[in-house]
Amino acid sequence: MKSTTNGLKWSAIERLVVQVIQLIVMLYLARLLGPNAFGLVGMLAVFIAISQTFVDSGFSSALIRHTERTEKDFSTAFYFNIGVGVFCYSVLFIAAPYIAVFFEQYELINLLRILGLTVIVNSFAIVQRAKLTIGMDFKTQAKASLISVFVSCGTAIYLANMGYGVWALVGQTLTNALCNVVLLNIYIKWLPTSGFSKTSFDYLFGFGSKLLAAGLLDTIFKNIYQIVIGKQFNANEVGLFTQANQLASVPAITLTSIIQRVTYPMLSNMQNDVGKFEEAYLLTLCIAAVIVFPLIIGLGITAIPLVAILLGEQWLPAAELLTILCFAFMLYPIHAINLNLLNVKGRSDIFLKLELIKKSVIVCMLLITIPMGIKAMCIGMVVQSYIAFFINSFYTGKFCKLKTAKQLKVLAPIWFGVLLCALITYCISFVVSYHIKSVYIQLGINLSVMPFLYVTFIRFSQVDLYRKIVATIFKAKN
Q: pLDDT tens, 196-254?
């Protein structure tokens, strides 16, 4: 329990501090570079992400879950990761001109060939990260990430101010990857001491292949909107959508990853104790909802004044998209935790099946909404997110007593309370801003009224959960 609490603390420090720094720098760069630069990088995101998914191939999750891992397992994963990394970069290098023709943006050729180097670089640290996660050593990962983000953000700011435009974003990504890999290899002085083992590969790939297929589907469909918008519209529109999507997803993904990175190895260790496992799983679900729901919806109702103040008028069209997307990402932690259960139970086959079902839903939504424009596409993402909840919870309910009805029973009051507090806050803000035309006052009302209403609501309507959270916080401090 102590290692879990300590892991949660350092995981939180890493994710929160890193994301806050990157968010601040991203907002600064957005004002300086404009939507077009972010749009160009957004067009390439899917190709880098797909390559990275191939490089990992689910091996890191397989190593973490395997309770009898050996040095042969680590060495096999190491050789495989690097080999696939080199292969994927070669494909990106050759495909760069064709991708540029597809988007009719010929500067993408050099951008992809340089940005793609991150795929090779990252392959040299996958085993190190797995080892640290297995040992619940999130402190070392936090140190490497924090140093890397400072170096990479400093590089990006320098390049942007020197007039390098979109290359500032490329430099940031590449520098962050390189610095992180170097530091992890310094902290974890590990080199493979065994050759490639077919037995180890069969196990790792047997488990990881399902996650690879599911990860590929997830990666493609996470970025499919940038592809469609880039093809149907232009780089500027991709930039607006990418920025809105990033602002909506960062809080949800960051907070969920903090919880997930710690609870995955923890739940893996208690998977044979059914009662203890389900109690921990339900508490994880509730805590994620209590924290993430209000943050995401709160961001949604402050979108217009926030974008106007932080990014400037050139980004205002992204504000409306941001509000809509917040309703989609509100359920992100619930999706992730439900799917986490399948990994813990070793059912990567069901994980893949779910991804296939949900991706077919996304395709349907896209076919319906593309002719209606970007706003309709964002609304389709919201609908798809809620459909995905019922699909995920239905299948995970087959492996424990936490079926869809039980999850709804604990999540619905939190969901309702968040929306009620957000609606009251929005109404107050709207009335005041109607008489006083100031985005600063509007933002101030949202940031003060919403938290007060929500904490009051949770304090009196979710007494047991409130006490557990408070007890956990004070226990961690002590």
A: 778 777 777 777 777 777 777 777 777 788 788 877 777 788 888 888 888 888 878 77
Rounded alpha-carbon distances, angstroms, from residue 103 to 95, 115, 254, 347: 13, 17, 30, 38
For every residue of 128-188, which 3-state class applies, written as one string? HHHHHHHCCCHHHHHHHHHHHHHHHHHHHHHHHHCCCCCHHHHHHHHHHHHHHHHHHHHHC
Angle between helix 126-134 and helix 71-103 axes, rounded to 10 deg? 130
Beta carbons of 231 and 103 less than 8 angstroms apart:
yes
Of all residues in the chain, what percent carry a pLDDT higher than 70? 86
- The string over 275-305, giving b where at least 16 C-beta atoms fall within 10 Å of a residue's C-beta and e elsewhere, is eebbebbbbbbbbbbbbbbbbbbbbbbbbbb
Record the tokens describing residue 371, joined without a space: 């002719």
Give, in order, the Cα–Cα distances in Å from 140 to each of 4, 283, 316. 15, 27, 39
Among 204, 203, 213, 206, residue whose Cα is nearest residue 354 = 213
